[in-house]
Design goal:
Number of strands: 5
Strand order of the largest sheet: 2-1-3-4-5
Radius of gyration: 23 Å
Helix content: 40-55%
Shape: elongated
Number of domains: 2
Mean pLDDT: 86
Low-confidence stretches: none
Order of helices and strands: EEHEHHEEHHHH
CATH topology of the largest domain: Rossmann fold
Distance between the termini: 62 Å
Number of helices: 7
CATH superfamily of the largest domain: Resolvase, N-terminal catalytic domain
CATH architecture of the largest domain: 3-Layer(aba) Sandwich
CATH class of the largest domain: Alpha Beta
Strand content: 5-15%
Length: 180
Amino acid sequence: MKVGYRRVSSLDQNLDRQELGEVERVFEEKVSAKNTDRAALQEMIAFVRDGDEVVVYSIDRLARDLRDLQSIIQTLNDKKVAITFLSERLTFTGDSDDAFSRLQLQMMGAFAEFERNIIRKRQAEGIAKAKARGVYKGRKKQIDDQQIRELKQQGKRVSEIAQELGVSRMSVYRALDAAA
């Protein structure tokens, strides 16, 4: 059976770019690859059986760093499941021990991890410079502190306020502390 796996990092991103071709079942998620404890990934790993093939658009859609990438591929290969990365044109099976493919995988995974680290560093530097200039103020406030204080003065409990406004109790406590 051919099984597809597609992932994007956030809810506002679109999965359409990751064309997988003919697959019988697709597992999709919109979640960061910070950890391998992703629901669709774990469901896909549990679903596949001996002789199946997992198709992924590119290496960075499966794992965030080289260690996770190797671990996921090894888990699939141990189940005698092949995995194919379309962009990189690489396939890994439990049967073959292609040293050149393994080397390519390690190099591409290492470069992808390096690129993510550089992007994160540049982003942090840009934010620091913007803060120094007074331009960066952070995310716009989503909670109306005045409304929270009014609800509290009406005698509502913190948990009631949080539920009514659709925010966490901690957010309500912060708003109340800021007013004090």
